[in-house]
């Protein structure tokens, strides 16, 4: 039997160098002399993949032959980040890599930099999926990640002369992708369109067109587990070769139309945009990967058996629906079971409901997907019939469970009336075994508000699994200095597998020597980020200033506006002499954010931040005291540099709007203090790290609700706080737009008349807490003690713990048995 990959590979550096030379020669046809860093990167990746191959194959065999139920994580997004260092870490080849590359005469950093980061996700939801598949493999749980290999990932962000966001295509696949293996032999046919006819008493779908789904497999190596799982991303290809008849008529463009249409399906990642759903192509994408993945799982577990016993399917694999994006998989599994395998409705329903679980990642009603029934009928006519039947069955079931007719009506999956639509979150909540939110507060609000009727009727379905992040990437790889210090402090590096061990750092927060070492690590990380920002962006950052960071998608509810208004007010305080220059805590305020291309106010906020940065930078009065930078194209790589360098983390969303947040966890684990509202996972972070070690401000969910009820009027807050008034007036009067009063007029008008997320109402509290922050920051020893307490008490936020919670509460499975 093949041995599982040893935690530390026994391969020597010299052997690994030979392997790299071999790949260069026999795979790439390049001599070491001709090689560029990009060649070395590809050769190394190929060599590492070979090291993982035995464990990968063995993990699959053990999964298929054993009795451990697997997990299928269905997600439209996997935001993986660069793979090389993570793969080296998990295959125990890191030291060998550095030595081998040196022997070959290359700079390791240049080799690492040659990898192009795939951006196959928008933000938190996609990154969570990547952390989860890392943890599944690290815990030894057999699992598949299933998604789409988009040809274009999230747009590359640039800023123009005026500081506006410009979106550029991210054609990442023009670069070599040595990690992905295209498996043409395991393709799947995905049908679309056409009609349903009655044949011999059966409903038969006659599709109009089909797409070929080809899997691209990525290995997902576990840390110290010897297990390697699979991320299977589907590529859409056409079946139709050139239509010769049309081609001969020289109508070339028409001849390739079917190819273009088919291949469009996996062409581009939809940029998250809560205001603009309902795109036909997006539904095609969703069905494309849901259908291919379900068929694939059947093939994996039952081979090509003609009449497999699919009543055992839920014992083989459980599927997690990552938000509503793959929910069309529910009627698809019903259709597969009934139409392709001949099961009756009730048996199919029983199998399907045991197979799926649903995670909701939002609280914004506009982000819950709803599809027009007419669109589903056009693309997937058989599925519409099935959804109608599910809805009928559901209505019938409800009539037996409640007399509340209004409630039954509210719960319809298929809405009544002239233009009916399908509510995907409701379909998932009815058909799924379990429904979960992503932080305690969020899960509670789902039960109390968003999915209240469902939780009333099916209380046992509802549970919480608080999000987590992988400590391998976001501590070990991102923050080697802190990782080494933690290992020194604990006397072991086992914390990377059992993050709760960090708790044992707590006493060291009282040890001044340790605190000073910790402060030194933070300072070094700031210097490292300053160097990076200089070479990458041309910014000049002063590492002796406080690094105050806000990184997340640009959304009104996240309230980047609150931060920038406070910066402007501080700027005005210094300018007017209200605050003496010598009393100012020097700060570097760092923003990272992409705005959805169609999100007007979000894009305007980016423009404002950039121009505030510019005005402040050109003003000698605040030199050395206040600086704002906005590194463009924020991505995983930048996150890995910036989070370890941050001292103050901004988590300032309006209470009740951020489902969880995950950067808040990364920051706490890397020793930043948080300024935040009682929202999402902030609540749990504060409970764990202690109220004294967290800067809380702002309205609670209840206070927000009351304020909505009492007809919130932002103008009152504008009038009541002179600092706020000054800041808004400066935006309005053209201070940040070369005197032009029109540039930000829509933003100003929104603040003063709508301000849906109550930025103005929380402004004064936000300023007060910032003053407290500055007081504490003046005492560096105290500050760093609290930062250490954040690290020590954040072990709970490992994605390993999240996965263990899913295993216990939702999936009811566990790791593959290990051999002695
Ligand atoms: C919606 C849409 C709408 C149409 C086009 C593409 C698209 C892509 C994503 C979404 C929904 C995004 C929901 C989301 O990202 N939620 C975030 O999930 C994180 C992980 O659970 C959580 O930490 C964040 O608080 C939550 O905002």
TrEMBL record:
InterPro entries per UniProt: Glycg_phsphrylas, Glyco_trans_35, Pyridoxal_P_attach_site
Protein origin, superkingdom: Bacteria
GO molecular function, one term: glycogen phosphorylase activity
UniProt entry tagged with the keyword Nucleus: no
Modified residues (N6-(pyridoxal phosphate)lysine): 666
Catalysed conversion reaction: [(1->4)-alpha-D-glucosyl](n) + phosphate = [(1->4)-alpha-D-glucosyl](n-1) + alpha-D-glucose 1-phosphate
Gene Ontology annotations for the cellular component aspect, listed alphabetically: cytoplasm
Cofactors named for this entry: pyridoxal 5'-phosphate
EC number assigned by the record: 2.4.1.1
UniProtKB keywords: Carbohydrate metabolism, Glycosyltransferase, Pyridoxal phosphate, Transferase
SUPFAM superfamilies: UDP-Glycosyltransferase/glycogen phosphorylase
Similarity annotation: Belongs to the glycogen phosphorylase family.
Function: Phosphorylase is an important allosteric enzyme in carbohydrate metabolism. Enzymes from different sources differ in their regulatory mechanisms and in their natural substrates. However, all known phosphorylases share catalytic and structural properties. Allosteric enzyme that catalyzes the rate-limiting step in glycogen catabolism, the phosphorolytic cleavage of glycogen to produce glucose-1-phosphate, and plays a central role in maintaining cellular and organismal glucose homeostasis.
Protein's name according to its UniProt entry: Alpha-1,4 glucan phosphorylase
Protein's organism: Bifidobacterium choerinum
